[in-house]
């Protein structure tokens, strides 16, 4: 189901069908150690100068605009520079499906053979372009093993390693941390994100 790739510009062309739906999926991962209360409004110490680059594989199950359940999978590249995130989604052959760029002031979505589309924020852009929206800003924190600072969250600490989170419940999402990388690598290795309404399942494996 999975394969790896690296890039941040539209290099190849791919068909549009699943591409539009895929443009919603992902983000990358890093670990800020979690110390844990069962509920939290913690504000993670993510510097506005932070630069993070992540690569990995994804599988997504979603309901399309016609109410049909669909599955998609492939590879992703994520680059974060301060508050700006650029996410590239690729199919298993390495062809670019979509590029999403999100910043506090604007968002853009690029699809093969199409002009970029822009909006004030990434949620509005995805809703308008794809028919549904993903919590990209929440994922930016959740994939760093930390609650987002924007709202109340319930956290569960891993009983075998109390410096790590096992689960976050926030904004209608359940984020389960299934594996962390061992030294010398560090960070989240595998996690699942699920939402009930509207239903969406995301499985991520991160390459460090």
UniProtKB/TrEMBL annotation:
Secretion signal: which residues?
A: 1-36
Which biological process annotations from GO are given for this protein?
Answer: protein transport
Gene Ontology cellular component list = cell outer membrane
What membrane topology does this protein have?
Answer: Lipid-anchor
Localization recorded for this chain is: Cell outer membrane
Which keywords does this Swiss-Prot/TrEMBL entry list?
Cell outer membrane, Chaperone, Lipoprotein, Membrane, Palmitate, Protein transport, Signal, Transport
Q: How does it assemble?
A: Monomer.
Q: Which family does it belong to?
A: Belongs to the LolB family.
Which protein are we looking at? Outer-membrane lipoprotein LolB
What organism is the protein native to?
Trinickia soli
């Amino acid at each position: 189901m999975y394969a790896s790739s690296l890039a941040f510009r539209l290099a190849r062309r791919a068909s549009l069908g699943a591409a539009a739906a895929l443009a919603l999926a992902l983000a990358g991962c890093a670990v800020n150690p979690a110390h844990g209360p069962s509920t939290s409004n913690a504000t993670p110490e993510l510097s506005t100068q932070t630069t993070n680059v992540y690569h990995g594989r994804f599988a997504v199950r979603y309901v399309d605009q016609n109410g049909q359940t669909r599955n998609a999978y492939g590879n992703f590249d994520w680059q974060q520079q301060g508050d700006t995130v650029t996410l590239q989604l690729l199919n298993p052959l390495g062809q670019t499906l979509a590029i999403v760029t999100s910043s506090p002031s604007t968002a853009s979505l690029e699809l093969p053979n199409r002009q970029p589309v822009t909006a004030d924020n990434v949620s509005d852009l995805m809703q308008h372009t794809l028919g549904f929206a993903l919590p990209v800003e929440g994922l930016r924190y959740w994939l760093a093993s930390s609650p987002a600072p924007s709202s109340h969250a319930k956290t569960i600490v891993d009983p075998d390693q109390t410096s790590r989170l096992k689960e976050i419940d926030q904004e209608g999402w359940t984020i389960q941390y299934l594996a962390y990388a061992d030294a010398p690598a560090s960070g989240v290795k595998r996690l699942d994100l699920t939402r009930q309404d509207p239903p969406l399942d995301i499985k991520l494996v991160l390459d460090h």
